[in-house]
Amino acid sequence: MSLEGRFDAETGVVRVGNDARQRYHDSRGYGYPLEGNEIALAPVEAAHLLYRGDLDAVVDDATGDRLDFQAFASREPGTDFGVRFLVYADLRERGFYLSPAAEPWVDDPPGGAVDFAVFPRGKGPGDGEIGYALRIIGERTDVPASSLADGVLAVVDEESEITYFEVTGSEPTGNTATSLPSGVDATLLADRVVLWEPPIDLYEDAFYGQPLEGREYERPTLQCSLLEAAYLARRDVIDLEFGAVRERGREVEGERFDRRLRVYTELREREIVPKTGYKFGADFRTYAEVESVAELGHSELLVRVHPAEAVFEPRDLALDVRLAHGVRKTMVFALVERGDGATPAETDIEWWSIERLTP
Amino acid sequence: MSLEGRFDAETGVVRVGNDARQRYHDSRGYGYPLEGNEIALAPVEAAHLLYRGDLDAVVDDATGDRLDFQAFASREPGTDFGVRFLVYADLRERGFYLSPAAEPWVDDPPGGAVDFAVFPRGKGPGDGEIGYALRIIGERTDVPASSLADGVLAVVDEESEITYFEVTGSEPTGNTATSLPSGVDATLLADRVVLWEPPIDLYEDAFYGQPLEGREYERPTLQCSLLEAAYLARRDVIDLEFGAVRERGREVEGERFDRRLRVYTELREREIVPKTGYKFGADFRTYAEVESVAELGHSELLVRVHPAEAVFEPRDLALDVRLAHGVRKTMVFALVERGDGATPAETDIEWWSIERLTP
Asked: Strand runs (DSSP E) across A132-252, as ranges?
């Protein structure tokens, strides 16, 4: 007997009777039960059953048309149905159960812009345990920084390949204790600062700056970034005026300087060593624990600093995360609230780690 | 006998006598000869000799001050002297001769915004052969797309690490001959197009689209990007109207769509296969020669499409080039002149390959 569904435009679900409840809901986690024998399917679920040949057709209640997969999938061409279907199908193909993140498919669904609740491998909708919240976008959809949330973001590119990103709110921590000298002679140049004869521990233990080639003496000539110098000036380690260094920083990179200084300061306060991330296209590469530069391990994080109101393109997420993965580091976005930039304030940075996920 | 130079503010050079000509010019390629026994050094060259201890001091003619390296380097703190010195010193350290790209240091210097002429390893200023034109910037200096030129770009990051990029104007070529069907049934969705039953060669030989999982039949369900579909529509391969597909493309990504379509079309016309570069953060990954998808090699280029008036941040260059290198591909920037977007025009795309260089 052929199994057909009926699309009810008023409720937006596809209703299926006969033995659909046992075949598709109870044993395979599609839809939710209705009175009697019927189940209700979300359009994506119905489309998947059509695609697999488990449903022969969906009848449009309003028009009486019998829709096959092609016709049903083409019904609402202006929506994101396509990308949602592709991800749904991909995760089903990988052996996961997943349900629309709404009642009555799941009790207590995750909040926010979540499309599906994905269940841990081996678990289904009835087991009461959600693996993660899944959000689906096309590669051309902007992602406001304010919309980042714990869970998985699936990006469907223009050729229907899917990239999964695991997004986790996480505070970085470190364990680099440093003692700082004071009154070091320094010169402010156009876009960097030279420290003429600091104690070598400033570099070798605390990892500030970079010695000029050939001058790694007991008191080396140390070149620092404007950021490092601003931080050191504020602590009277060098004999430059903090305001002058900050002003130069703002001349060079505008308001980005204040944001980066806020994050640099926060990282140092957390006993993390931030160094420039330029070669990786990031703001910082960070070392959680530096005992000495001679025994330096690899940096663990790449940090990108963004204003809290930033909007990301999925393409840039792909690029940042892929590069980080390629050099065995984790990408972290530091979102900075607008502030006066003068003093660090603990509550105004949000930290998000973003990693590739193979579900 | 201590060797000193004299800084002449009027000409901007440092003059050195005694045996400087033989020691520093003839045998080590610094400066250019003056009348009598003297040579003239650019400030960067003089600073390097001070740095190495080959000069004891530079006397400022105007003030009579005797300047050591620290004082001489700090003389003009608002200029790019710092970054120029760092790169000069680095290349010297690596064993290269290099001279300011101006007469009388070199005859017939390279045009444009070039800082130094770097000589091939083993050659010097007197051998009459320039290896490449070198331009030096700090990582915060914007790079207008219009300023790209054959040569090397050295970027000095905020901690004085130097990254060298080799920039080459280069036209991509390919050898993928394809024959296209016509009148294929297709549906335009929100951000992609589905071809319902095209001949499988359209994918397997010509590498258009991506088959939907589980539907790789003799006549597969093929999903195409809006770009691919626009190109195919214009050639009557599919039964959608070109204007409608282009309009959808513009809704999704604005004027970027027309630029990407121009480049996509140009690549296809050159018998190159462009596929989406999303996972690499690029516009396209390209295959020069595709015989069949079954025997597909690796794509060779990552192409980024930019408007001709774009301005790059060195950080983005670092990211793009590093990622390309990490996946063994070459980064190419395609600069597109503003146009009506209706027809491809051969003269309106400039192609620049950008690669990491270890001098």
From this structure: 132-138, 143-144, 151-156, 162-169, 186-188, 193-195, 210-211, 222-224
Residues A87 and A60 in one domain: no
Active site residue B287: yes
Which residues fall within 8 angstroms of residue A287, CB to CB, at 6 or more apart?
A174, A176, A207, A272, A273, A275, A296, A297, A299, A300
Instruction: From chain A, pick out residues whose CB is under 8 angstroms from the CB of B214.
Output: 51-52
A110 and A24 in a common domain = no
Pick the residue from chain A with its C-alpha nearest to B137: A191
Q: How confident is the model at residue B245 (pLDDT cuts 50, 70, 90)?
A: very high
Distance between B278 CA and the closest CA of chain A, angstroms: 6
A232 and A257 both lie in a single domain? yes
Whether B140 sits inside 8 A of A253 (CB atoms) is: yes
Placement of tokens 């010097």 in the chain: B124
Rounded to 10 degrees, the C-alpha dihedral B310/B311/B312/B314 comes to 160
pLDDT over 90 for what percent of chain B? Answer: 75
Confidence of residue B268 (pLDDT cuts 50, 70, 90): very high
Mean pLDDT of B260-279: 95
The residue from A58, A78, A98 where one domain ends is A78
User: Which residues in chain A come in under a pLDDT of 70?
Assistant: 1, 77, 215-218, 339-347
Among chain A residues, the shortest Cα distance to B319 is held by A281
Distance CA A359, CA A357 (A): 6
ipTM: 0.82
Q: According to the model, what pLDDT value does residue B215 have?
A: 65
Assigned domain for A136 exists = yes
Domains: count for chain A: 3
| A174 is a domain residue | no
With pLDDT > 70 as the criterion, what percentage of chain B qualifies?
A: 95
pLDDT of residue A143: 94
8 A C-beta contact, residue A289 and residue A175: yes
My answer on whether B212 and B335 are in the same domain is yes
Compute φ and ψ for A33, nearest 5 degrees.
-75, 145
Same domain for B61 and B17, yes or no, is: yes
Which of the pair, B95 or B35, is modelled with greater confidence?
B95
pLDDT band at B177 (very low <50, low <70, confident <90, very high): confident
pLDDT at B341 over 80: no
Q: Is residue A175 part of a domain?
A: no
Closest CA to B222 of B238, B236, B235: B238
Of B78, B107, B125, the residue at which a domain comes to its end is B78
Residue B313 confidence (pLDDT) above 60: yes
Kindly give, in sequence order, each residue whose CB lies less than 8 Å from that of residue B111, ignoring residues fewer than 6 positions away: none
Shared domain check, A165 and A151: yes
Q: Is residue A353 part of a domain?
A: yes
CA distance A82 to chain B (A): 7
User: Does one domain contain both B65 and B101?
Assistant: no
Residue A157 is part of which domain span? Answer: 79-169
| DSSP-assigned letter for residue B212 | P
Q: Does A212 share its domain with A342?
A: yes
